[in-house]
Write a structure and sequence with these properties.
- The longest helix has 22 residues, at 76-97.
- This protein has 10 helices and 5 strands.
- It has helices at residues 7-18, 41-52, 62-65, 68-72, 76-97, 109-120, 155-165, 171-178, 180-192, 207-221; strands spanning 30-34, 55-58, 103-106, 147-152, 198-202.
- By secondary structure, the protein is α/β, with parallel strands linked by helices.
- It has one domain: P-loop containing nucleotide triphosphate hydrolases (Rossmann fold).
- 51% of the residues lie in helices and 11% in strands.
- The protein is globular, with a radius of gyration of 17 Å.
- One of its GO terms (cellular component) is mitochondrion.
- One of its GO terms (biological process) is dUDP biosynthetic process.
- Its EC number is 2.7.4.14, 2.7.4.9.
């Protein structure tokens, strides 16, 4: 419905239509990294890619990420639809890449779901949908990763890193900073995701230490 008003929406839908309905994974492992901004995802994903000679992909995928700012200014349902569509477009890229090498992904479905749940709920963590609610379930028709790692750092350290980076803040980042309840809802939503669940990794130590922990978890959970 919004394609008439937003030309980019039509382009996203065209890409989505070209994706095969059932994506199946290749023989190489697919590892997703999740977490709030400034938890070290960019650094860790790059290091893991280099160590495993893998392929690094991001959500939203490169084919639509240039339109992110357009959709971030749209009403919430349209914005969320853009990110959800992005996951399915990304799935077709994962399916192809995982036939060639290990696939490392900077955010995937869990991000879309966690931010949506946190935005649609107001109040404290106890106001979130109950633990067994279907909102925490992975979609049946979306290609599943082998492992999801949730990078966490304490709030003060995260803000310090953000200031150190000096990058322009996203709308969500501004919200996270201003509203600690929102941040708590996002992190708790991540922790409640199932099938696959997130394995939590403390990303506060040095890059080398975090990478070591991450590689141990990959070795434990993924067949190489």
């Amino acid at each position: 419905q919004c394609a008439e008003r937003i030309p980019e929406a039509e382009a996203v839908l065209d890409l989505l239509e070209k994706c095969p309905e059932h994506q199946s994974k290749g023989g190489f492992p697919v590892i997703v990294f999740e977490g709030l901004d400034a938890t070290g995802k960019t650094t860790v994903t790059q290091a893991v890619k280099d160590t495993l000679n893998g392929i690094l992909l991001r959500s939203p995928p490169a084919s639509i990420s240039q339109w992110r700012t357009v959709f971030d200014d749209e009403p919430t349902p349209i914005k969320r639809a853009f990110y959800a569509a992005g996951n399915y477009i990304l799935a077709s890229e994962i399916a192809k890449a995982s036939t060639q090498a290990p696939v490392i992904i900077d955010r995937y479905w869990h991000s879309t779901a966690a931010y949506t749940i946190a935005t649609e709920t107001s109040g404290k963590v106890q106001d979130l949908p109950p633990v067994q609610d279907e909102v925490y379930q992975w979609p049946e028709d979306l290609l599943k990763p082998d492992l999801v790692l949730l990078l966490t750092v304490d709030p003060e350290e995260r803000v310090r890193r953000l200031q150190h980076r000096g990058l322009e803040k996203t709308k969500e980042e501004t919200e996270l900073e201003a509203n600690s309840l929102f941040r708590q809802r996002v992190e708790e939503s991540y922790r409640r995701m199932v099938n696959p669940a997130c394995q939590e990794v403390d990303a506060s130590p040095s890059k080398e230490e975090v990478l070591k922990t991450v590689l141990q978890l990959i070795k434990k959970h993924c067949a190489f």
